[in-house]
């Protein structure tokens, strides 16, 4: 039998007074995958994750985590999380902070050393938390999330404050967590991060889910990048030929979602229309392109 999804959300909304922070979000996280929750700051990512961990209650909608309701003791026992900035006792060492958490969670003390090694903090374990850099504090937060050896790990912007080397190490750790059979839900506003570590991604903007796909599926097939003048005329001609959904403007180029073997045909049409084509090449769309395309469309539709 197929295992039930660790996270199932239907019609989730969260309202703060007149502000609708989350607006009818649906998402399903599959067992053993690394799921990227992607969106700009203020899109509703952290609010959604706070609901999944039972920190706040939804206004409406159905939320199921590991077969139960968020915040239930049996669900929390199988979940590790880091939401927003991790908070610890500033004058205790990283080691003593984790020992204290281990006692609360009834976790063997031997596990403390294991998670410190995992996040590369063993060498600074006896230093006070107040002396840690922002990146080190972030890594200690991830260590705390892993203390219970959880089935489900929920991380809110885990690379926040990390230098490039630290970001690389964190990505490696997240990939390892996924390969060990755990399910990881990762929020981020960094497109490259999500593209490198996630199996699937949900894009949220303005509290609404605008796309949810496998990363490769969301990026789609190859497309043609066309640099031409006047750009608006090239955009108009290609929309007439290919349809509005297949053509979009991105920076100073037109992107066309068509097979590369149509390049000569489209070049001829543009030239016959009096448009000067300076570049026409095939490329695979980056997640960044998809993200800006989707969020731009969302703003246009909302307006």
TrEMBL record:
Pfam families found in the cross-reference section: ABC_tran
What are the TM regions of this chain, as residue ranges?
Answer: none
What Gene Ontology molecular-function terms does this entry list? ATP binding; ATP hydrolysis activity
Domain of life according to the entry: Bacteria
Residue intervals of the ABC transporter domain: 7-231
Keyword check for ATP-binding: yes
The record, for InterPro entries, names: AAA+_ATPase, ABC_transporter-like_ATP-bd, ABC_transporter-like_CS, P-loop_NTPase
Q: Which UniProt keywords apply?
A: ATP-binding, Nucleotide-binding, Transport
Does the keyword Lyase belong to this entry?
no
What family does the Swiss-Prot or TrEMBL record give for this protein? Belongs to the ABC transporter superfamily.
- What PANTHER family does the annotation carry? ABC TRANSPORTER, ATP-BINDING PROTEIN
Q: What is this protein called?
A: ABC transporter related protein
Origin species, per record, is Kribbella flavida (strain DSM 17836 / JCM 10339 / NBRC 14399)
């Amino acid at each position: 039998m197929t295992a039930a999804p660790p996270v199932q959300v239907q019609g989730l909304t969260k309202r703060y007074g007149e502000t609708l922070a989350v607006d009818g979000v649906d998402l399903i996280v599959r067992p053993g995958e690394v799921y990227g929750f992607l969106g700009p700051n203020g899109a509703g990512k952290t609010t959604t994750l706070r609901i999944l961990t039972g920190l706040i209650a939804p206004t409406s909608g159905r939320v199921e985590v590991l077969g139960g309701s968020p915040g239930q003791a049996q669900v929390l026992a199988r979940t590790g999380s880091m939401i927003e900035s991790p908070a610890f006792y500033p004058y205790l060492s990283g080691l003593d902070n984790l020992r204290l958490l281990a006692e609360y969670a009834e976790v063997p003390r031997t596990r403390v050393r294991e998670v410190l090694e995992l996040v590369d903090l063993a060498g600074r374990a006896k230093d006070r938390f107040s002396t840690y850099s922002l990146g080190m504090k972030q890594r200690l937060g991830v260590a705390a999330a892993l203390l219970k050896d959880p089935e489900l790990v929920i991380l809110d912007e885990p690379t926040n404050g990390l230098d490039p080397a630290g970001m690389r190490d964190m990505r490696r750790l997240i990939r390892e967590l996924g390969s060990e059979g755990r399910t990881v839900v990762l929020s981020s506003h960094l497109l490259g991060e999500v593209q490198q570590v996630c199996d699937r991604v949900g894009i949220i903007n303005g509290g609404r889910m605008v796309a949810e796909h496998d990363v490769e599926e969301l990026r789609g097939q190859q497309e043609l990048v066309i640099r031409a003048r006047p750009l608006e005329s090239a955009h108009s001609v290609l929309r007439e030929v290919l349809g509005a959904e297949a053509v979009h403007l991105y920076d100073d180029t037109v992107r066309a979602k068509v097979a590369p073997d149509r390049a000569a045909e489209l070049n001829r049409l543009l030239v016959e229309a009096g448009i000067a084509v300076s570049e026409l090449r095939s490329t695979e769309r980056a997640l960044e392109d998809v993200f800006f395309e989707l969020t731009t469309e969302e703003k246009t539709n909302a307006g």
